[in-house]
Q: What sequence folds into this?
């Protein structure tokens, strides 16, 4: 998630059993702010978990120090508390600083839609998506169709000719 | 120097090419070969595809791009023009690839004869030369597919019948049938039935996140594990700093860094095989500059790193109003059309393209606008409704063009950036030719027609109007084969011009890229190269000799 331009040679894994978890501490204030923004971007919906808790947990477990600093800088510009004011602030960020907006949105969308409880809600809503692809996979009974009327050709090596003068 | 030893052959890079060569040499017996890999082993349970947050994992620590992963075993690839996708580990980039399994067609070996545009030259070998090695490589990997495609030369039966896919496949196939255009079920290096003790595909989804089930054929399964059982000397976390030469200019060994300890080791060998991919191989040759080779090894004619071809791409998302089951089935490709694969000057360009259709990701990437991200789910009051129009409604498409080799499309060394061992990083430079642009624009127009015929709601296709930053999945041409040191780096047997004992075999050896995913060709080239090494008893001969 952090900029590729600032290449560093080693990713510190603070929790080796959880790859990608760095748990660089974010302040309570920033986490609360992130939660309020998540609930505005992904509004509550009957049958689905709210975004705030899922997103703040996801982010707080995974950010590394560089990502945390970037995210806190972005959140620092959105100190509003009411949904209407947050909406206005997000609209402004999206227009004036699209790179920061994308960073914020990526964390929120990834945080929400990779959650097991959201997957459960999708299944309750009728989907058979089951989250992590492995180990279970999907049963597909239907054979893949084949071309109704096969067509096509190729040039043999000895048939290749100059096409340009 | 912490240690010095002597062996018969050093192979650098444990991907498909290095693995295939190592395996064949071990099978022939009587040779001490060492395989050096700067990355580690990846255990089956390491892959992100087992994790709840797998989509996020692929975007970050399991990214295809080493500049995003930022792992110790990676090297930075600075510069611009495309996104560099490669993997440094045992098995190389086959740890995380689609397994889409094309062969080059005969005409694609003859672009010099056909048009000679930019730096296009004929391969010094033909399709027919590679056929036996294509077949053998297929048997090693296990290929699923359907015989009878009239757009390809006849071939031996695949090892497994075609794979099954989500509903997206049926929708696109019906559209192509309506148009009356060529299409065919894609060959994939993903087994659909048990094969040589491996489990068949269970249609779990995103193969490019790795396949701990083992259904996706990798260099590790096909070559490296069998070679280890024969006693292969494989050394991981072993980063080659330079290839060295003797006073005659012939190769005499390598110096490598043990990344675990930082110690430098030396291996003396009369034969060194470089198989580090289209970025890593020229980087190593350039990093091996020494008196006698001031511009890098095998670079007397300034050809190392040039003529980079990556396939010019337009990626697209096709959206439907009905379920597509994009999260089911291999990824891997579902189907492709070669309706526009051959040169047709009425398009205003030479060469051709493959248009491929495949599955997608999960809900997070759907929310973010799928492959292109051009139409992410809006935030705010309509978010839930709009998410429902994206998840399970998506098809991936790729227009893949046989890009022209150009002198200035190249890999060089970055003068300022280094890897974790202090070795200069690679720098990339790549721009599309007018021919590439014409083909991509033509292909994009055809893709819209396919989508419309398939009943799609809309297409989001990447634009090349404001610049190009396509996917560098296929890294080719930078040490290409040819019949002259003035226009190539190696000869028909992968022997470097002017440096006896130096062999280069991987995607960099490919003279052109065709409009085809290259792994089948890279494996076939490696088997052919290995057979030559064996039949000539590892003779350290000049390029061009006895060809």
A:
């Amino acid at each position: 998630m952090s900029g590729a331009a600032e290449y560093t040679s080693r990713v510190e894994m603070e929790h080796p059993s959880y790859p990608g978890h760095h748990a660089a501490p974010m302040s309570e204030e920033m986490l609360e702010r992130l939660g309020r923004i998540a609930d505005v971007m992904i509004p509550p919906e009957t049958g689905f978990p709210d975004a705030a808790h899922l997103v703040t947990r996801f982010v707080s477990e995974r950010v590394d120090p560089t990502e945390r600093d970037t995210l806190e800088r972005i959140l620092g510009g959105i100190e509003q508390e009411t949904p209407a004011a947050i909406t206005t602030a997000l609209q402004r960020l999206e227009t004036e600083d699209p790179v920061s907006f994308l960073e914020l949105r990526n964390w929120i969308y990834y945080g929400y839609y990779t959650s097991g409880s959201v997957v459960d809600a999708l299944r309750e809503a009728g989907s058979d998506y089951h989250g992590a692809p492995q180990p279970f996979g999907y049963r597909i009974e239907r054979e893949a169709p084949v071309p109704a009327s096969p067509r096509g050709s190729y040039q043999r090596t000895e048939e290749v000719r100059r096409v340009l003068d | 120097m912490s240690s010095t030893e002597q062996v018969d052959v050093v192979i650098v890079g444990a991907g498909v090419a290095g693995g295939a060569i190592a395996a064949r040499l071990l099978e022939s017996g009587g040779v001490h070969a060492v395989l050096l890999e700067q990355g580690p082993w990846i255990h089956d349970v390491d892959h992100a595809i087992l994790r709840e947050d797998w989509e996020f994992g692929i975007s970050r620590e399991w990214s295809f791009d080493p500049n995003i992963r930022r792992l110790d075993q990676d090297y930075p690839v600075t510069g611009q023009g495309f996104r560099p996708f490669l993997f440094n580990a045992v098995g190389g980039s086959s740890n995380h690839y689609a397994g889409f399994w094309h062969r080059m067609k005969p005409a694609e070996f003859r672009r010099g004869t056909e048009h000679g545009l930019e730096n296009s030259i004929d391969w010094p070998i033909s399709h027919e030369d590679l056929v036996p090695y294509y077949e053998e490589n297929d048997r090693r990997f296990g290929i699923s597919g359907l015989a009878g495609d009239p757009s390809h030369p006849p071939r031996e039966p695949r090892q497994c019948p075609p794979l099954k896919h989500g509903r997206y496949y049926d929708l696109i196939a019906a559209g192509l049938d309506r148009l009356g255009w060529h299409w065919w079920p894609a060959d994939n290096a993903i087994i659909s039935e048990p094969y040589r003790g491996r489990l068949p595909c269970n249609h779990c989804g995103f193969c490019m996140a790795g396949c701990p089930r083992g259904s996706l054929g990798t260099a590790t399964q096909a070559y490296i594990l069998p070679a280890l059982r024969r006693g292969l000397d494989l050394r991981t976390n072993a980063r080659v700093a330079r290839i060295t030469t003797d006073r005659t200019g012939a190769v005499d060994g390598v110096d490598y860094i043990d990344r675990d300890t930082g110690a430098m080791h030396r291996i003396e060998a009369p034969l060194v095989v470089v198989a580090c991919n289209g970025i890593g191989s020229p980087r190593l040759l350039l990093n091996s500059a020494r008196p006698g080779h001031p511009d890098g090894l095998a670079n007397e004619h300034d050809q190392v790193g040039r003529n980079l071809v990556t396939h010019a791409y337009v990626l697209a998302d096709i959206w439907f109003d009905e379920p597509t089951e994009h999260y089911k089935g291999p990824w891997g490709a579902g189907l492709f059309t070669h309706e526009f694969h051959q040169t047709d000057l009425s398009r205003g360009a030479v060469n051709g393209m493959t248009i491929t259709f495949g599955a997608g990701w999960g809900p997070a990437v759907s929310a973010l606008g799928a492959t292109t991200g051009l139409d992410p789910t809006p935030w705010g009051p309509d978010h839930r409704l709009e998410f429902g129009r994206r998840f399970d409604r998506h098809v991936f498409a790729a227009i893949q063009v046989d890009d022209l080799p150009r002198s200035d499309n190249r890999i060089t060394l970055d003068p300022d950036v280094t890897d974790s061992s202090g070795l200069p990083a690679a720098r990339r430079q790549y721009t599309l030719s007018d021919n590439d642009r014409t083909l991509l624009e033509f292909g994009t127009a055809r893709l819209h027609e396919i989508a419309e015929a398939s009943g799609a709601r809309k297409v989001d296709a990447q634009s090349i109007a404001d610049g190009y930053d396509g996917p560098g999945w296929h890294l080719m041409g930078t040490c290409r084969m040819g019949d002259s040191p003035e226009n190539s780096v190696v000869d028909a047997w992968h022997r470097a011009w002017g440096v006896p004992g130096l062999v280069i075999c991987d995607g960099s050896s490919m003279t052109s890229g065709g409009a085809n995913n290259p792994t089948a060709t890279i494996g076939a080239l490696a088997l052919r190269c290995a057979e030559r090494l064996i039949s000539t008893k590892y003779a350290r001969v000049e390029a061009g000799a006895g060809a």
Summary: Residues 20-124 of chain A form one domain. Chain A has six helices and no strands. Helices of chain A lie at 28-41, 51-62, 65-76, 83-96, 98-113, 116-124. Residues 29 and 102 of chain A are 21 Å apart (CA to CA).
